Amino acid sequence: MSIFSRKKILKLYLNGEITSNSSKFSGDDSVRKLKSTLLEVKQKNKDDYKGILLKINSPGGRAATSEELAKLVLSLRETVPVVSSIGDSACSGAYMVAAASNYIFANTLSWTGSIGVIMMLPNFQELSKKLGVAFKTIKAGKMKDLGNPYREMTPEEELYLETLVKSAHAEFINFIKLTRPNSKNLEELADGRVLDAKTALENNLIDRLGTEDDALTYLITEILHGDEKDFSITDTAPKPSFLKRILDMNSPITVKFELPNNFQRF
User: Fold this and answer.
1) Residue ranges covered by each domain of the chain
2) For the chain, what percent of residues have pLDDT higher than 90?
């Protein structure tokens, strides 16, 4: 069969932390690229892709961005089946994305799960006292400076933020119940703990242990009922950013830039 007449499979990637501000310059561009490609397939599917293989290596990240990606995958899976292949990890928000697919493979040593929500807020009050630095806040609305790092949080504020986090956690669990209706012991396992692949399999949080090649074979033969020779793969492997290429050039040192974790995240 001519390569031009083969049916097409789209290979997509979710790498690194799920953020809403990824860019080609700063590092991982996979979130932005994955979102735009999923939207394009949903709206047009101009290249008539028969299936999607989604390779995931991510610890999770921003709650709303994770949910957005997951719902995009969920909206596609009836018309363009999606098989996820977990590499090193698909935890928290990345697991939510995987759970939205039709089928999940994971390597034996993969980590997944971590179904929880976290919000971390720094407090510099004691440090500012030692430095002799004071901040005056002018606000309209008693909770407008909620999370102000230069004062103690009130019990009322802490209770309100806890309510937000618990609400997001409940939404996360409900999404897994929707997408993985045969999951077992979900209420127990959805306490934020990371799961090894075997435990996830035993509780139907993933479908099978196997490699990326196994996932591709399953997509072609079991879901699309075809033969591998009749399909071609459109690989969207992300290219390393200019900054990453410079940092990696002839250097054994890994440099990682991190922002404070002061946001709600899966």
Assistant:
1) 3-117+165-248
2) 59
Q: Which CA distances in Å does 180 have to 97, 169, 245, 247?
A: 12, 16, 39, 41
90-99, 190-199, 225-234: least confident range: 225-234
Active-site pick, 85, 92, 114, 183:
92
CB 10 within 8 A of CB 38: no
Fold of 3-117+165-248: 2-enoyl-CoA Hydratase; Chain A, domain 1 (3.90.226)
Of the residues 8, 129, 144, 166, which is catalytic?
Answer: 144
Check if the beta carbon of residue 152 is closer than 8 Å to that of residue 122: no
Is residue 7 annotated as a catalytic residue, yes or no?
A: no
Alpha-carbon distances of 231 from 2, 79, 97, 159, 216, rounded to whole Å: 10, 17, 25, 54, 11
pTM, entire model: 0.84
Average confidence score pLDDT of the chain: 86
Is 33 annotated as catalytic? no
* pLDDT tens, position by position, 153-168: 889 989 999 999 999 9
220 Cβ neighbours under 8 A, 6+ residues apart: 9, 51, 226, 227, 228, 231
